Amino acid sequence: MKLFLQVIVILGTIIGLFFLLGYLVTEQKSVSQIEVKAPVELCWKIYQDESRISEWMQGVKDIELIEGVGGAVGAKQKIVMNSTDQSSISASNAELVRTITQIKKPRLFSYDYTNPLMKGHSEITFTTRDSTTTINSVDAFTADALWLRSVLFLMKSSINKKTQSQFDKLKEIIEYDYNNQLKEAAESLNETIEIGSELD
Question: Per the count of CB atoms within 10 A, which of 73, 101, 132, 171 is most buried?
């Protein structure tokens, strides 16, 4: 009987601490940063290309415009997620609604997002130095339910790694496209030089 009571007390303490964690941690942040060797205009263009978002943001199945003008402040979009991918912030449910809150091309893009379980705000900035563009993403998010706040806190490391890996993939895509552009430009220049030589 004594052992049973001890087990009950321990379980009660663990459960209490679990919910206390959700009470104390009301909002969390995920920060990701990449340095891309490409012009800021190309970085912005690829980031904003909704037809290519699934190439780097794993788990996105579809994006649908539900209100406003696509790509403009105030536009609302429904982002449908693959329900099998649950490790990213926004994948805690099958879909979410994103509302664009600020656009300063090609320097700043921000939006709010909600789903039945949680809500958040993301801000993505693009800064340049020499031939490198730094893309920085800050995502602040929370949930109404105490238990979910606790779960999100315990998953924080996994969420951060997942988000960073997505931006790392974005970096790969941008640099690959930029290198191809440089290669094509060089080939075009060589062809022009060869034609000029033949005319001479």
Answer: 171
pLDDT in tens, 81-128: 875 544 444 444 468 899 999 999 999 999 999 988 899 999 999 999
The first and second tokens of residue 20, run together, are: 């206390």
Which token pair is 192?
A: 């022009």
Residue with tokens 């049973």: 4
pTM reported for the whole predicted model: 0.85
Q: Are 25 and 148 in contact (CB under 8 A)?
A: no
Q: Is 87 helix (H, G, I), strand (E, B) or coil?
A: coil
Domain residues of the chain, as ranges?
A: 2-190
Distances in whole angstroms, Cα of residue 1 to Cα of each of 11, 35, 115, 199:
15, 61, 46, 102
Q: Which CATH superfamily is domain 2-190 in?
A: START domain (3.30.530.20)
Hey, what amino acid is at 32? S
Tokens coding 23: 């009470």
